[in-house]
Amino acid sequence: MKDQLQQQPRDLDGSPVTPGLPMAMLAEITHRCPLACPYCSNPVELTRAAQELTADDWGRVFRQAADLGVLQVHISGGEPGARRDLAQIVGHARDAGLYVNLITSGIGITRDRLEDLDRAGVDHVQLSLQGIRPDMADRISGHPGSWDKKMGFASWVRDIGFPLTINAVVHRQNLERLPDMIALAENLGARRIEVATVQFHGWADLNRRALMPTREQAAAARQVVNDARIRLRGRMVIDYVPADHHAVYPKACMGGWGSTGLNVAPDGTVLPCHAAQSIPWMRFENVRDRPLGEIWRLSDSFNAFRGTAWMAEPCRSCDRKTLDFGGCRCQAMALAGDARATDPVCSLSPLHAQVLARAETDAQADAAEFIYRRMKKGE
Amino acid sequence: MTAQPARIVPPPLIGPDDIPYLPRGVRLACDRVRGIRVLQAPERAMQLDAIGDAILGELDGARSMGTIVATLADRYNAPPDQIAGDVRDFLTGLIERRMVFVRGQNGDGP
Lengths: 379, 110
Prior knowledge:
The complex is a heterodimer.
Chain A: H1 2-7, E1 24-28, H2 55-68, E2 72-76, H3 86-95, E3 99-104, H4 111-120, E4 124-129, H5 133-141, H6 146-160, E5 164-170, H7 178-187, E6 192-197, H8 202-206, H9 208-211, H10 215-231, E7 237-241, E8 261-264, E9 270-271, H11 292-298, H12 300-303, H13 321-324, H14 329-336, H15 352-363
Chain B: E1 19-21, E2 27-31, E3 36-41, E4 44-48, H1 50-57, H2 65-76, H3 80-96, E5 101-103
Antiparallel strand pairs in B: 1-5, 2-3, 3-4
Helix pairs in contact in B: 2-3
């Protein structure tokens, strides 16, 4: 009886919840990266190489993920190419039956290695884009020469025949060039472009005053995307993550906490989303200690915000609560100081006016210099 | 203020003589955990119903949509006009998502 009680998944208030099946897993196989983008989605506390899971560890995790219902793995980092055994890791993922998306900066993967990755079974390549032309791209990525290397990498992707997605991260300092980024993706033969406005967690939050888009930029970007979608119908897909500080309702982060996706960090820590470690009281489990399926179904971190019973007002009585799930828990933590609060970017949040005013102030800031993502000395 | 424009139905992206195919990186698969058929594509796995699975199972990169429609109409003993509309709309949706490619009979196309 006691065992059964312990096995019933419960949210952070003790209400029973029902875990579903995950579709996708983000495998952050390393935090090492030659770039230093000031909005990096890795945590501010980066994991060292010595703490990384081995390729065989990843093989075990992929098999457990496939048994759990995961269909696709996104192999990312850091820069996944920083691991010499990347092709072996990819091979393990395909052997487990997963569809393999490689998410890369394109820096540090030679043509020979890309051909190895083709043989290992990479299904699709997503290439990040920091800006247009060397001056902008190299400054934002903090890596001289990055633009030329990326363009070379994109041509190899095309020669080998991988499907290509361009991932353009946009913010105040490059949004004016969005039409050029879309045109570039088209010229590179990309099937898709993801236009993702910077999400202000971690490193990006440290750079808010240099990155926050203006309201005018957010509106113009929406128009550019809408026009391009019509022009490119049937030729290139445009996925767009708008600037949520300027939205009416928050984004449905992760499609709901612990509902369809999970993230495994370089050292094996399993996270409900890549920013979850910004919730200071939350404890996470590790694939070194417990099988992935048990972590998904039974860990306190995944169950904390499943379902809707944990919500406070105004979410609790809101008819959008099963559409956006109250928005992003990490953003609620960062902006409201409470991970269970309504995401303060929601126009129904009592903090909304204050958050919007701060975003407007940051967007007008005379700050162009970045705090680049770096490992601390000794890491 | 401008009035809300009338809802426009976008034109189909494939005709009877065009040859539809699954490009590299897109494949039919079994989801053994959920017991369903899925279309695996870049960063997307789409659940297929029996009709969608039957249509995509016919894509061999050689036969035109018209031939595929005739095959399906014959197999399911259904009116070809209705099958033609269903297949055209289903494939148009996937072409919009770049999960199905099309080449003309002369072999041109992406």
